[in-house]
Amino acid sequence: MTTTHDLPLGRLAAWLRHHVEGFRGPLAADRFTGGQSNPTYKLEAASGPYVLRRKPPGVLLPSAHAVDREFRVMRALAATPVPVPRVHALCEDDSVIGSAFYVMEFLDGRIFWEQSLPEVRPAERAAMFDSMNAVIAALHSVDYEAVGLGDFGRPGNYMGRQIARWSRQYRASETEKIAAMDALINWLPQRLPEESAPRIVHGDYRMDNLVFHKTEPRVIGILDWELSTIGDPLADFAYHAMTWRVTPALFRGLAGIDFAASGIPDEAAYVAAYCRRTGREQVASWEFYMVYSLFRIAAIVQGIAKRAIEGTAASEEAREVGRLARPFADQAWALARSLGG
Question: Residues 113, 116, 119, 122: is their CA dihedral positive or negative?
C-alpha cells in the first residue's frame, strides 16, 4: 500500500456518515498498490477498516470500470456459498470524490500474486488450489435468477458477443498493428462452440483476485467483479485455467513447472476437478476456449497500454503490462493455427 491518496477525506467522511451504518470518524486512507483497473483504497476509521473502490478519472472505454455492477453482484451473492466481501454502500454521484465508488468490508487475509506460491508448502499449495477450484465451481452453480440477477446479462450468444466486444475494445485501444490480433478477430467468430447453460461469470477469476484465510488454505473472498455478467461458465473457467498455459516468465503463469513436486495439480487434473464439481463429463472445445482466453487477455492488456499512454492507468506498472499484448496474441494465434486456423 502507498501512503499517498487523492481522496477528499472531508467530503467522503460526510458521505460515509450518512450511508454506512455505524461509521464513525476520523477517517484516513491509503491506496493499494498493484492491479491495473479501478483504484482501490483501505479506509481506516474509528468504526474499523473498510475498502473503497472507485472508477479512475479521465476518459474511459465504453462499459469499462463498472463499479455499480461489482457492487450489485457481490450484494446478490452474499447469501450464497460463494465467498464475497460484504458491501456497504454505492455512490454514483461524481461530486463526492470525483468518480463513482462503493465501500465494502475489508477482508483480513492473504493475497498471492505469484501463482506458483513459492512461500507455502506443497500440501498447503494443493489445498489452496482445491479451494480455488471449489469456489469457481460454486459460483457457476448459483441460480442467477433466484438471487435477483435475471437482468444482469443477456443469456445466449455470449461467446459471439464477447468476441465482438473484446475486438472493439482492442481496436479502441490499438497503439500499433499486431498481426496475430487481426487474424484472431477474423478466426474466432467462425468457430464458435455450442454454449453451456448460462451462469454468473466473474470475468477475471485469478489467484490475485482472491483473498485467502490468514492461516488456513481456503478462499474467503473473491474481489474485482468489474467484468462479471451472465454468460458461458466454460469461458470463465478457461480464462482462469489459462495460467497453466502461460509461462512464469511471461506473466506469473504455471507452464513448465514441476507439478508433482510443487503440490499444484496439472491442467488435466484441475479441469477434471471442476468438471466433477459442476456435473460435467468433460469440457468440449477446450482448446477453442484457450484461444479465446489468450485473445481476451491480449485485448485487456492492450487497453492497459493505451491508458498508460494517456496517463489514466491505475498503477506505475501499467506500461510494462501493456507490452504483453503482442506475446499473448502470438501464443493465441499459434494455438489457433494448430487447431486448423
Answer: positive
Cis peptide before 26 (omega within 30 of 0): yes
DSSP track, 266-287: -HHHHHHHHHHHHT-S--TTHH
Total Cβ atoms within 10 A of residue 226: 22
CA distance 93 to 42: 20
Cα–Cα distance measured from residue 94 to residue 101, given in angstroms and rounded to the nearest whole number? 9
Give the total number of structural domains in the chain: 2
Q: How far apart are CA 65 and CA 44, in angstroms?
A: 24
Strand pairing partners for 40?
Answer: 53
* List of the chain residues with pLDDT < 50: 36, 61-62
pTM: 0.91
Beta bridge partners of 89: 103
* Neighbour-count burial of 251, counting CB atoms closer than 10 A to its CB (0-12 exposed, 13-18 middle, 19+ buried): middle
Specify whether 133 is located in the same domain as 92. Answer: no
Last residue of a domain, one of 43, 71, 105: 105
pLDDT in tens, 221-278: 999 998 899 999 999 999 999 999 999 988 889 999 999 999 999 999 999 999 999 9
Question: Which of 105, 138, 173 is the endpoint of a domain?
Answer: 105
